[in-house]
Amino acid sequence: MLERDRTPGGRAGGVPLPFELRLKAIHYDYLVCQRWDATAEAYVGGAINVARAAITRRLEYDGKTLTDPVDGTSWTYDYTGVQERTVSGEEQVIVPRLIEDESSILIMPCQPITVRNDGDTADVICQYVELPQGRAFAKVPE
């Protein structure tokens, strides 16, 4: 039987375990999260920068045109907000929505990831990455 370390960021059989944080702030390529003590109903510890799941990062797609190698269809990406983008004229939003001070984010330790800070100022180095938990961009209903 595997021994499990139940502290955040613990390990099971030498493999890092995911753990949960509360969302404090949303940026294009990373999230600011913090541990939440439900008993005290308060944040504990310092803020932790978490790289967003690659599929929701602006850095990967913004201003780029990608072409499907099979059928030649092209899509151009334009990010209009931290949870909104337009893909070849189609408005999309992240679902389920991220809500500051409400959303729980499941994260994993990772090798350091450098992401672009909002406004292209200093890069942010993250040692944790968000597990998307089904979160992705979807077409805005008309």
Topology readout:
Elements lengths: L10 E2 L2 E2 L2 E8 L3 E8 L4 E10 L13 E3 L6 E8 L2 E4 L2 E6 L8 E12 L8 E7 L5 E4 L3
Antiparallel strand pairs: 1-2, 3-4, 3-10, 4-5, 6-7, 7-8, 8-9, 9-12, 10-11
Detailed description of the structure:
- The chain has 142 residues and is mainly β.
- The chain has one domain.
- Helix content is 0%, strand content 52%.
- The chain is built from no helices and 12 strands.
- The chain has a 5-stranded antiparallel sheet with strand order 5-4-3-10-11, with no helix packed on it. A 5-stranded antiparallel sheet has the order 6-7-8-9-12, with no helix packed on it.
- A hairpin with a 4-residue loop joins strand 4 and strand 5.
- The N terminus is likely disordered.
What are the main properties of this structure?
142 residues; five-stranded antiparallel beta sheet; disordered N terminus; mainly beta
Series of secondary-structure elements, N-terminal to C-terminal? EEEEEEEEEEEE
Question: Biggest sheet, strands in spatial order?
Answer: 5-4-3-10-11
Shape: globular
Low-confidence spans: 1-8
Characterize the largest beta sheet: strand count, sense, and whether it forms a barrel.
5 strands, antiparallel
Given helix and strand content, the structural type is mainly beta
| Number of H- or I-type helical stretches | 0
Mean pLDDT, as a whole number?
82
CA-atom Rg in angstroms: 17 Å
Strand content: over 45%
Number of strands: 12
Report the span from N to C terminus: 52 Å
Number of individual domains? 1
Which bin fits the share of residues in helices?
A: under 10%
